[in-house]
Amino acid sequence: MVIKNGQKINRLQALGRDGQLTGHVINLDWVNARLQYSWAEGPVMCKRNGYYYYFPAGDVTGGQYVLRGRSLTGDSTKWERLGDFFKPVTDDKAGFRRPNHISAPVQLADGTWWTIGQSYEKYNGDDWSGTGRQTSLYPVTWEGDRPWGMAPTILPIRKPELPRSGISWTSVKTDYFDGSELSLNWHFLTKKASASYSLTSRKGWIILAPDSARTHLVQKETDHYYSAVTKVDLSATNDGAKAGIYLTNGNQAVVARLYSGYNNGKKIVFTMDTASRSMPNIFGNVVWLKLERYGHELTGYYSGDGKAWVSLGRPIDAVKLDETQPNFNSWVGTSVGLFAEGKPADFDCFICKDGASPLPAAGYRNYYGTATVNKGKWKTVTNTSLYGGWFMISGVEIGRQSPSSVQVVASSKRKGMLQIWLDDLRDGKLIATIPLNATGNGIYKTFSKQLKNVIGQHDIFVRYPAGVPQSIFVKSIQFSAK
């Protein structure tokens, strides 16, 4: 058993066949000598070709290292320090900095080796460290008996040959609060908040009941582009009553709130840091709220029916929330969800990737044969493969009732088509083939196709036709209600 305790303690503890500790301990405290690997955190091990491999992580600045030995011994002369585990970055496609805290490398049935590690997204100066430690799969290659983890990259790699699990891509999950128990997708940032809700007092709603402070219900933020939507019922009669959408870092020091509240009358308010937007609430106690994220920009909207939206004005810059934060709060990452202050508030639903709102193509989570192209403030996605590329937007909430059509905003240099698939390109469902006319270079138009019986939350795949690369540019996709 591999043991780590504090900065200095690195040990291997022998176990009996019954799984209990024996008296035999191998002392590896020398791994930390002269702070060569600082804390030598989270060590893991594997064995291959008669070698034992010991993988300690570096300190908070990152780094992952590897040692090897022919036998399990505490004699430092019997172990060889091989240095860095991950290959050095040699191009401009490094999207993650200094990955570490890997799992023990494992070999699959096809002979390939893999490990799981964590890192922070940072590419071309665009810092998303505030998202928290992000997990990735890394291929492991061997040069003789020397293991190497693949250099971190934003480019796609071939996935491991594993059986399909049926587990959907990681995204914030929609909740209509119909059950008697809270979904395990939710979490709390304080112990007190975990006891401040009810799913049974009003069927189909969740009631957040704060004491004198704020209470919340959140999920880990998983995307850089989305429209979070909720329907809230609050009778705000004083400045302390607030309820709506909540976006926060782990210690709740950096917070964005879009809420129904009161300030010389009922108001809809959108705030973060020193920025604030507000408008009179013309709809009453029950109101729809929508927080739209487009990269580092946040925009607030409200509505009386969840269909016709009123903007609260220009976007608010969220860079302070998204970039590296002090006291290593970035380890925890950003959460998004609901909050209430001052008095109880009822929420009918929470949707993070609203399909009835335009879904930016640049918000894809997986792709092949495509590239993002900047078109002024907006970004578009184009095909780069002769064989027809694709991109996938995860966790899109299409709704409880089937929309009448799916629409794409695109520019096409010639006639073509786009296919829209649910959940997978091989085992999923083709729901629409959208014909495109030539629009002219840089001219964007809306193209649509009728839909039938498409509901729920799905991963949406947009597939380009085979042919000439960079002939179709997609800006957004949207599911239009009847």
UniProtKB/TrEMBL annotation:
Q: Which UniProt keywords apply?
A: Glycosidase, Hydrolase
What's the family? Belongs to the glycosyl hydrolase 43 family.
Q: Which CDD domains match?
A: CBM6_xylanase-like
Q: Which SUPFAM superfamilies match?
A: Arabinanase/levansucrase/invertase (SSF75005), Concanavalin A-like lectins/glucanases (SSF49899), Galactose-binding domain-like (SSF49785)
Domain annotation Beta-xylosidase C-terminal Concanavalin A-like: ranges: 175-350
Q: Which organism is it from?
A: Mucilaginibacter dorajii
Claim: Disulfide bond is one of the keywords in the record = no
Q: What is this protein called?
A: CBM6 domain-containing protein
Superkingdom, natural source:
Bacteria
Its taxonomic placement starts with: Bacteria, Pseudomonadati, Bacteroidota, Sphingobacteriia, Sphingobacteriales
Pfam families assigned:
CBM_6, GH43_C2, Glyco_hydro_43
Which residue numbers delimit the CBM6 domain? 362-480
Q: Which InterPro entries match?
A: CBM6, ConA-like_dom_sf, Galactose-bd-like_sf, GH43_C2, Glyco_hydro_43, Glyco_hydro_beta-prop_sf, Glycosyl_Hydrlase_43
